[in-house]
Write a structure and sequence with these properties.
four-stranded antiparallel β-sheet; alpha/beta; 10 strands; 7 helices
Length: 227
Amino acid sequence: MSDHTLSVTDLTKSYNAGKPNEVRVLQGVSLDVKPGEVVALVAPSGAGKSTLLHIAGLLDTPDTGAVNIAGVDMSKLSDRKRTAVRRSTVGFIYQFHHLLPEFSAVENIVLPQLANGVPDAAAQTRAMALLDRVGIAERASHRPAALSGGEQQRVAFCRALANEPSLLLADEPTGNLDPDTSDRVFDTLMGLVRDTGLAAVIATHNLELAARMDRQVRLSGGTLETL
């Protein structure tokens, strides 16, 4: 069993492979993340950070290289088993919250649990506990349109943690917020991560936020370097 929650090794990824307009996004990228470790992935727009996160989170596949989660080579699993791992083991947070607009805050957190086989009562209890943890339990019945940007992103954090993942992948999770709200919401996210002890990779272009994480790596020119 690996000591790392996530290990990606020698990942390569190109788009329009073999064509004159081929774009080589990842060129031999490797990264290990331990339980309880928060890694800042620093990269400018278009550098491939979303591609790396999607591959690490089993939403995309590399051209070459390996993705191991909790010591298991994901390429050895069937599509059905990969989907099960993604649903139960990986939590995603995006720059835009992507909440379902027709459902309330608590329902947005309950739904992924129901999809993972959690009974409704237990899902409701966990959803409310998470909303309370991020300080917006009183907003549970509100739909996303009735929430502020910071509140919406807090709900998105809760949704990502609903199924108690061991790996959290976040792509510019505060990038759509004003500086003051971004700082408060980031504190909330770090508190959640520290409380749960999961491994996290958080992509950001904000160097001040990156400096508050355990380790920083930079993606540039398709390769990864430690800062």
